[in-house]
Amino acid sequence: MTDHVDTRQGVYHDSVTLLRIAQAASAAPGILAAQVAMATELNVELTIGLGFTIPEGTGPQDLLIALRGEDQAAIGAGLAAIDTALSAVEAAAHTGGGFGAVAPPRTVRAAALAAPDAAVVLLTVPGPYVIGEAMDALAAGRHVMIFSDNVPVEHEILLKETAARTGLLVMGPDCGTAIIGGLGLGFANAVQPGRVGVVAASGTGAQQLTCLLDEAGVGISHVLGLGGRDLSGPVGGRSAERALTLLDADPGTDHIVLISKPAHPATAERVLAVASGLSTPVTSVLLGAGLPDITSSVESVLGTLGRPVPHWAHWPAAGPADTTPGLLRGLFSGGTLADEAMLVAGELLGDIRSNIPLRPELGLPPSVGGRPPLAGTGHAVVDLGDDEFTRGRAHPMIDPSLRLELLHTQAADPEVATVLLDVVLGHGAEADPAGRLAPEIRQARQTAADDGRQLTVVVSLCGTSSDPQGRSAQISALTAAGAHVFLSNAAAARFAAGTALGSDRDTAHAHQYQPAKESV
Amino acid sequence: MTIADLLAGPPAVISAGVDLMAEALRSQAATVTSVDWRPPVSEGYDPAALAAVLADPRTVAANALAASRMLATRAVLIDVLPASEALGLTPGQFCHAGPPITWERASGPMRGALIGAMIFEGLAADAVAAETMLAAGTLADGSPISLSPCHHHHAVGPMAGVISPSMWLFRLQDVTTGNIAYCSLNEGLGKVLRYGAYSEEVLVRLRWMTAVLGPALAVAVRARAVGAAGPVDITAIIGQMVQMGDEGHNRNRAGTLMFLRELLPDLISSGLPAAEVAEVARFVSGNDHFFLNLVMPAGKLMGDAARDVPGSSVVTAMARNGTDFGIQVSGTGNRWFTGPANYPQGLFLAGFTADDANPDIGDSAITETMGIGGLVMATAPAIVRLVGGAVPDALATTTRMYEITVAENPAFPVPILEFRGAPTGIDVTTVLRTGILPQINTGMAGRRPGTGQVGAGLVTPPMVCFTQAIEALAAAVVE
């Protein structure tokens, strides 16, 4: 056993730093005891207590080092550890002062403190966790857009009541689309700026509406989303009233379009009463059986605005367009588009089964393994953006894998003649949907052809010529793969129903198609 | 921000959740603040309880009210007096730190402090006798021994927090509410009763504190309180100390000196013998933690001011007895939510290792409850190395604490964070939403009775305190 004691002059460190250094020395191999401390009276006594002998004349300004090791080598290791630790402390003192990276906020509350000017909070967290973040947003005086679905309705009511007290707008839950001052939130198309404001209880309905208006040369001021449940009885249109009032007060909005799926009667009455009391004219587009489809409604809006109705573009599939009669299967990512397709195609085909059926008896059996059971169901249209298919999985506008799988299942089903798909372009959507879809369409058609059948693929393409995906290129890729592409969802559905009936494309549609304006 | 602003142009956006959506906004040249959102704590409780509390329309306003009451607290020192008078303690009655504890479950330092207090009170001749009586629960004359938390007596005590009838206490009052809080006088560091030591030097010091220090401080404090300057404003000193490198839990150096400065004139003019005054001044100035025992009752007053707001999830007390960590929450009154106390991580005094340390102990986490201590680590770079960290870690710690607190206290500004107010009012719901636990700076007691201090470091409460609290809050949600 060897003791080593030395003192160093002109070195001062606080006791905590020295404790750390002593600990580093203790950890050196063979060190039995280590004391590194300023030689105060107390520390000298402590060190003597440990059995060390302290040199005469050691004072509180000296740094005292006392090591006990198994042998001289251990002392050497201990001293080396002390020197390393001391130089690390000195180096840190010279490089210190870095404040370190600022951690991102962990809650909306903290983010709101960091971003006092952010007017809108966009929530895409899982539905059950929305409540905390949304309450944070409202408490901080921010408007909220809740993209998430699977939010309990009692949370929605609480949020909207809270917002009403503070004059804030809650868009959603399950609000897929908004455009505010030209900024698209969630899934939104790059529409031209203009003076028509939209209040939408349907995300893809709003996308279809704004895209067709854009195609007709009519620009948009804002799109305020409500979420699919706002016009239900329990929620009572709280956000609809707020959004209408808001657009009425907006000097940039001359005309308001209110688009909604079927609403609770009392709620619809109340909201329409608010609408009729505004100084800005409101056109209501209510979707449902026996009501005009979105395309027809857009034509009415254009009539009201005194604008000409364009011919809605259609791009035929490349190659032969033979059709075989058989079943229609619609694989949609947009709920409203799926609804509309069922209404339109149903007029020609009769009953269509669905996970979002027009009548309860048309409901599909429960999904199996997260997939809709389509075989043997007759004509069917599924909304893959519905809650049951997005639990634990991204929305089909972001992740198309489930839809691609279903496309191949349909191609292999000898009863199926026509597959109808929507492709939604715009901000938030897949960067290149046609890039993923086209080869699969080609393969699906080949599967059917190998089986001696003709599979017709019809695409309802919701997008504008300014969308970031590049609409022309998307259309080219789809038609080259053998798909018929329509800008009007109603026209696509009508065409698909016609092909399912085995009719030639010229028979079963109400609209005339003209060749694409864009070079494809 | 008004509703009309919304449509004035493309808004700046806060985005929480799918990063793709934030990217879609950025690609449109929008200003986006992204939340680093993660799922909440889900283990060990029914997560529906958290949602139920968040969906309680009272929660936001109740928390704002609880926090505003904490911030409105103004603690002044009005008296120093024996615990027998202040708390009505009689021989055999002892207060201790943390939630309720029995002798059977008490840890080493808690037992050591109780043994010391028994001897100090003259109830036992030695440790063996004291231990026998404490285990039996009766004094030599057969009368009962009772243990109860300081918190149940409007009091707080650091480490073991043992208060016996003869010990002198600071008496503080909240000018705003009139509430009273008590705390013992700080003994210094090393071998001291609160760390579980009870050797002769510990007892000698305690006797001197009772015979000299307490009465001397009482004369000065009372004179000061009735004088032109009024009572010493403890809240004001805390506000200054956090701007002078003290976080008020493990560093109280500036606070101690400022307190001494406040009291010295009245001490000197007290008429006490100069030698005694000098002894008192030397003792106080020689103990960098003296002011801790004034910070703590000030914190107690803040926590108490926030109590009993229906629907509030703000923490009103955090305390440990060396075995359990307990918290109390505004909306659930005096109920304790407890879990096993953690072992602090940090540095050990020469000759001690982690094996010598006791689990977390003391009422001093009231400093974090009031928004300082570990919560304002950023303001005390001088002690970051104590806890094995670096200055950027301290800044990150305090920044993180704003995530789980509902208010910022302008009375306790943190200069290095541009004088941002201390993060105040720990919210059970945000603790669970973020998984971030309050950061506590603490001393470490030796696990064996009689050891004393073995180190200092960092510790957090067990998450189970917060999961229990949320379930109780959820049960109290008015349908």
Walk me through the structure:
- The complex is a heterodimer of chains A (520) and B (479).
- The N and C termini of chain A lie far apart (89 Å).
- Chain A has 520 residues and is of the alpha/beta class.
- The model of chain A is unreliable at 94-98 and 505-520 (pLDDT under 50).
- Chain A has 16 helices and 19 strands.
- In chain A, the strands form five sheets. A seven-stranded mixed beta sheet of chain A has the order 13-19-18-17-14-16-15, sandwiched between helices. In chain A, strands 10-9-11-12 form a four-stranded parallel beta sheet, with helices on both faces. Chain A has a three-stranded antiparallel beta sheet with strand order 1-3-2, with helices on both faces.
- In chain A, 38% of the residues lie in helices and 19% in strands.
- Chain A folds into three domains: 2-95, 2-Layer Sandwich (Alpha-Beta Plaits); 108-305, Rossmann fold, CATH 3.40.50.261; 314-500, 3-Layer(aba) Sandwich (Rossmann fold).
- Chain B folds into three domains: 3-37, no CATH class; 59-71 and 306-475, v583 fold (Alpha-Beta Complex), CATH 3.90.1700; 75-294, Enterococcus faecalis V583 domain (Enterococcus faecalis V583 fold, Alpha-Beta Complex).
- With 479 residues, chain B is an alpha+beta fold.
- In chain B, a hairpin with a 7-residue loop joins strand 11 (324-329) and strand 12.
- In chain B, helix 2 crosses helix 15 and helix 9 runs antiparallel to helix 10 (274-285).
- The radius of gyration of chain B is 23 Å and the shape is globular.
- The mean pLDDT of chain B is 95.
- Helix content of chain B is 35%, strand content 20%.
- At the A-B interface, helix 1, strand 2, helix 4, strand 4 and helix 5 of A face strand 1, helix 1, strand 2, helix 2 and helix 13 of B.
